[in-house]
Prior knowledge:
The complex is a heterotrimer of chains A (204), B (406) and C (163).
Chain A: H1 7-23, E1 28-32, H2 35-44, E2 67-71, H3 79-88, E3 94-98, H4 100-104, E4 125-127, H5 134-151, H6 158-161, H7 173-187, H8 192-203
Chain B: E1 20-24, E2 36-42, E3 45-52, H1 60-64, H2 72-77, H3 84-99, H4 105-133, H5 137-158, E4 167-168, E5 171-172, H6 178-202, H7 206-212, H8 220-225, H9 230-235, H10 242-245, H11 266-289, H12 309-314, H13 316-326, E6 338-345, E7 348-355, E8 364-368, H14 370-376, H15 378-382, H16 389-397, H17 401-405
Antiparallel strand pairs in B: 1-2, 2-3, 4-5, 6-7, 7-8
Chain C: H1 4-11, E1 16-20, E2 23-27, H2 33-42, E3 48-56, E4 67-74, E5 81-88, E6 94-96, H3 105-116, E7 119-121
Bound molecules: iron/sulfur cluster.
Amino acid sequence: MAVGLPENIFITKLDAAANWARSNSLWPMPFATACCGIELMATAASRHDLARFGAEVMRFSPRQCDLLIVAGRVVMKMLPVLQRIWLQMPEPKWCISMGACACSGGVFDTYAVVQGIDRFIPVDMYVPGCPPRPEQLLQAVMDMQAKVRRTGTVMGREFAIRDMPTGPAPFDSDERYRIEDSRLIQLGGFSAAATSAGRSATQG
Amino acid sequence: MPLTPVDTLESASAEREYVWTLNFGPQHPATHTTLRLVLTLDGEKVLNAVPYIGYLHSGFEKLGEHLDFNQYVTIVDRMNYLSPLANEIAWHHAVEKLLGIELTPRCRYLRTILAELMRMHDHLLNLGTTALDLGGFTAFLYFFQQREHIYDIVELASGQRFHTSYTRVGGVLFDVNTDWVNRVRKFIRDFPKVYDEVDRLLTKNRIFVDRTKGIGYLSREEAINFSAVGPVARASGVERDLRRDEPYLAYADLDFDVVCSRGGDCYARYLVRMQELLESLKIIEQAVENIPGGPVNIGVESDMVLPSKPAVYRSIEGLIQHFEVIMPNRGYEVPREQIYAATESPNGELGFYIVGNAETRAYRARTRPPSYIHFSMFPHMIRNHQLSDVVAVLGSINIIAAELDR
Amino acid sequence: MVCLSELQQKFGAKIAESHFRDNRRIDIPAAVVLPLLTSLKTEYGFNMLVDITAVDWLEYEGATDRFSVVYQLLNLDTGERLTVRVPVNLPDAVLPSVYSLWRGADWMEREVWDMFGISFSGHPDLRRILMPEEFDAFPLRKDYPLKGRGERHNFPVITRSGS
Ligand code: SF4
């Protein structure tokens, strides 16, 4: 050990070395549920070739991966599976949410689709598009590498800081109103028109 | 504890303590996204398989009741995502039948070409991933390259490479140009070479044949009884192809063969798909050389079709027409009737049952998804095969999760 | 070709026929579903069941029944198609299962049960198929809202430090 050298200098350099190693050997775990999964496949296939960025080792076992790529919509029945997979991945780990559906529910604003996975698990990188072109995903992987290089620490302390998920709260206000409405309608007391009209009157 | 061999069992009802249960999916690379199976195994032998589905159920049909006929096409796209345009064509085929619209010849030919390109698109990926699941990576890469060429063709026509949302009631979004035709011609020229290479690589490959021949057998009677359609039924000897039996679009004018096989196993399904690639190529070639001139959308005076964007921006008639179609209180005259109309999608008969209610959106938009039917046969097909055959059978019936669950 | 008068003779006069474009449809009461479909299969050669679905008529002006269940049949030898519509009403929305005729009916009936809550007596395994087992509504009914009743938000939240 270098005598008298301030401890923090030593740590910083180790961080940089670790980050360099990590960022250039990301092992993605493709959680491909829908159409975006096909574009993910296209990214790994002949023309676009994800291997050029050191991230081609798709491992389908979460315990050997450090980058979760959620490609496609996640529905009510699937979300517990996704959460379990996230929990099974060892630290340090990151998550890319690929496609409009995974980021926000996309065109599927329906009863079954989770409106953005970031409400329930942490997300580092969002890739917009429906589906994102392979080039976009490549860019996201490169950005992810930059982020890993920039923010990582050897001990993975950056993960301990945030204890809020990044996305909006699971319940947004208009969702809550709608649920109340439908409950009232079920009770038979109000008609749908009456409740929503009454609310807009009081709000206005 | 050592396992008792199967044939020494006294009777089927004897206590089988060594039978074990394996959960397969819903997140597993070979399950084609989100399928889940619970397998009952005797050693490596599959005694029973129970599929659990719904891991991608996102309420398509409910959305269909809230979006109008042109908007819902964006959702239909996402149903069978290996061949998005085929779904659009099927959806608008049903809508046009409900509204009583007759397409222009150019549009019929154009849609035929696109539908066949999509059939190739679907089969290419399916064959590629089947080979991939069975351990052959090369065929996947070769075929994916060809898929990229189809992506390029589709992108040139519609502006989007994947979910094109290209068809409209009574026509398509833009017309195509000579560039596009040349691109298709080039594809037709180049494809057979790659096809031959993959053919040499797989069709007589000892490992591939051993893994697929005799696996997942489905007889003709069973196929009919299970409502199987498309390549799966044709590989079991059911001679049924809507393109020939109920010709729609331009298929009546074109010359092609319906590919059938008596094999009924995974290998037969592989052969049928491979042969269909060539038939599709034949259809595309004829259609692209004979594509008629004239307008691609039905006329402005019909009040049924969205006018082209330049017409909306540059002329008052176009603008009025645009509003006539998209305003909720105007729009089409939709009969208060129900209709079932189907097309031959790459996976089989893709039908829509639409209930019209004098509104510009469907009162009920039911999809008849081929994948759903095929997956229900899976337990029957896999029974008494080995565990490793599960992926072979799954690959050969081409389950698309989004179409399965909708 | 199925002849309407023959069917009426066998199964009572309550059977009506209609046409729209190239679709040919018959409306039958729920009581004769099983015998009529059996006879269509065995005597008239409709050997393939293409589809079973249902329609909820709650918001349809002038409708008299709550649901109808729609069977699409196909005769593979002649290519003839036939649509059979059966009205069903609450509270006892039950039809006999046609699983014994076509095994393809298995999942189709399960889907109708899952989405509309119409049950099929005699079905070997009538469980929910697309929605989770503990789901308690029938999503394709017209009185169920498009965006659901908050089921899609009902999950624990996992944070960075918590994982
Ligand atoms: S974002 Fe678009 S392409 Fe991706 S899963 Fe959703 S619908 Fe499919």
